[in-house]
Amino acid sequence: IQLAVIGNVLRLSELETWGGFLINFYIAVISIALSFPIGILLALARKSSMPIVRLISTSYIELIRGAPLFVLLLLAGVALEFFLPSSLSAPDEIARAVTVFTLFTAAYSAEIVRGGLQSISKGQTEAGKALGLNTIKIIFLITLPQALRNVIPAQIGQFISLFKDTTLAGAALGLFELLAIGSAITKQYDYLGQGLIYESLGFIALLFCVGSYV
């Protein structure tokens, strides 16, 4: 349902006409909103007692975490058409960027959440069983809330990294995001020879610093 909503938003808003910091912000917010619940599900699946579920989750996490983000973005931009039937149209560049960032960040978030789950003592689970709670209630009412609270700093750090990595979408997918605009400005005729690249990059860094701090 979430992916369908995002797809409708991408089509209705004509995001391909956007540019600059708005693209970075949009990709980061949507990717964070989608990757966080997926990461939780992957973490729970990796700790599942069912071998097949645990194997699928572990394989996905290790495969994605072992691949460079920039390579995944290049594959999404160049090779996606080779894997889609001719009857289906490939999504636009922003949709591809959101998909890659979501899948990539979900794998890292899963490991962060799994670390939080491992920090919870077995006594918490045993206390839930003593109260007559089933496994699902123990996870979502006792262990998972504590685990998520314990990993807030690491999770926020991962989301900040995602926000800054959105600049890679410009180089890999040709999006006219903030860093691409900062480079293009200094190449305009009125600015040639003025050596304003340092001022431009400094301003871009300042915007990302403020965004990351917030």
Please describe what this structure looks like.
Helix 2 packs antiparallel against helix 3, helix 2 packs across helix 6 and helix 11 runs antiparallel to helix 12. With 214 residues, this protein is mostly helical. The chain is elongated. The protein starts with a helix and ends with a helix. The longest helix is centred in the first third of the chain and has 26 residues. It contains 12 helices and no strands.
For the termini, the CA-CA separation is 29 Å
The SSE string, one letter per element, is HHHHHHHHHHHH
Low-pLDDT segments: none
Radius of gyration: 21 Å
Number of helices: 12
What is the strand content? under 5%
Nearest-integer average pLDDT: 86
The major β-sheet equals: none
What oligomeric state best describes the polypeptide chains here? single chain
Global morphology: elongated
Based on the model shown, name its key terms.
single chain; 214 residues; mainly alpha; 76% helix; elongated
Summarize the structure.
This protein is mainly α and 214 residues long. It has 12 helices and no strands.
